What does this fold into?
Amino acid sequence: MSFDYTPYLRMEKLPHMWCPGCGIGIVVKSMIRAFAEVNWDPKDIAVISGIGCTSRAPGYLNMNTLHTTHGRAISFATGIKMHRPDKHVVVIAGDGDLCAIGGNHLIHAARRNIDLTVIVNNNNIYGMTGGQYSPTTPLGAKAATAPYGNLEPSFDLVNLVIGAGGTFVARGQVGNGRQLTTFFQKGFEHKGFSFIDVVSNCHTQYGRRNKMADPMNMVKWISDRAKPMKKYQELGDEDKDRFFPVGVFLDDTSHPEYTDTYQKLIDKLAKSPVAAGGGHDAF
Amino acid sequence: MEKEEVRFWPGNIVVAEAAVAAGCNFFAGYPITPSSEIAAHMALLLPRVGGHFIQMEDEIAAMGAIIGASLAGAKSLTATSGPGFSLKMENLGFGYLVEAPCVIINVMRGGPSTGLPTHPAQADVMQTRWGTHGDHPTIALTPAFHQEMYLETIRAFNLAEELRIPVIVLLDEVLGHLSEGLIPPKPGTFEIINRKITTVPPEEYYPHDPSFGDVPPFIPYFEGYRWHTTGLNHDKTGFPTTDPQLVTEDEKRLMRKVTCNRELIDKVEYFMAEDAEIGIFSFGSTARAAMVAVKKARAKGIKAGLMRALTLWPFPNRQVLEFAKNLKTLIVAEFNLGQMVYEVERSVKMELPVKRVNKVGGVPIAPAEILARIEEVA
It folds into this structure.
């Protein structure tokens, strides 16, 4: 049985603008499969993005789609979710967009535990602007603005979002689309702030500078380094540096969701009207 | 009017009350002096009317959130002051390009930079027009009295909705914190305009469609229309284009929403202007000082008169030229080092002397300072 992607895509906008072999395609495909798994009607879904290669994804999705300013997708998404808490709001972003210029919005949305799902296509580079190093570029890796190797330590986005207060946090990778679909589905179903870090390939900007110019080789290199969390924990310190853990790191439903909390306030106050001016009359 | 209907509110409370009266149901903001009481009052009022208030993590996020809420159908508001207004500029431009109705209140304070957080100024007026990059239209309202602030806040929402455009209300620290009597109009006694909703089916809907006039009908998200919005230049469908003709047509249409609706947007008031020989152009709280100066000049036998702009942008060029016709001298009184005077000079085409009353430093322009300039040129 073949899966029908067409109800979720704006077919007339294809072919897409990404490089052949780009990991974003796998992320978008896995998202669509997850939308089908949770049985959401596309008219009830809003997909929001910022700026960059990944942020072009909403243009291909036949839903309510918003391509905003650099780094700010989560702030627009917060406005949409607050006004329509009954609808599904998903953010898709690249690593530079989400955790450099947009890092403040990421941690605060996680802290509020507002019911957004944020998916990051984490390819360790600014692709669209020409391969500059991002907050997730590994130490020592080469980039357009790191010709002698990256001098900065990188973010672990999973730990960042857990630390900030996100309540569903997972990591997958583009070599395993089926697993990504499962993580996205769980993220969509989670009531609260959900975050999925997708280790992805930009062979054009990252790979070319770091001896992985071929997309298949780069995806294989990523896949070979991914270890399920339990196996990763059993590794020695040296091996831990060569591999990265995948899986669901946190799935906590014990915390109140922000729009729910706000609705409870509205319901409570509906019974107690306030005087005009709220006590500001000086006389 | 019955006595108990008179309220005595600080200006920041007036605009917050007026926003809710205008149908505002979403506010996102960030703490900043001297506008913070607006956010605090919206936090108090909105959940009581089923609306939503949120204090965002920064000024940029607040601007993003009100545009997002607007696209989902909300009537949204943010309030800020100089530094925050600077931070909002990029997303404000996004609002113009995607045609998201919303209202931004800037309670002006001294600047540049952190400046004088607790003191007034009128030095953001050119930033209001040109602060965000690229060509764009601007609507900015400058009320001077509390009664007027109430009504002009409602008008700001109405213009935003009718023209699908962000509208800016400029107050300053004096207006924001000064308490003054007003009589809030009863609901139903003022007009409330809501954005025009499309009547075409989803397959025929385009978010920036010029075939219905310069203001394309709107449809909120989640109504089955699944439209796309982008900050890239786009064609009528909302999808990016680099076609020079399509980009030109769309940008020119955005400008026409303001240039071709001047009778709807423009608003000026005159005070003792009929037979005036010495005219004063002013706006906002400085116009209040100018009114006193005009009265004092008249008492001394000098024929002075005032024109004050309630709509500062688009600039009332035609009205200023008309006002200047019978004047010997025109004085521009503004609480900055000279900004709107350039617009006035352009409007009168050097046909009469244009003098200035300017000031910075946080202490408002006093009537005596304007009177001194009137007497000097009389």
About this structure: The domain at 269-377 of chain B is CATH 3.40.50.920 (Rossmann fold). Chain B touches chain A through 55 residues (CB under 8 Å). Chain B has two domains: 3-182, 269-377.
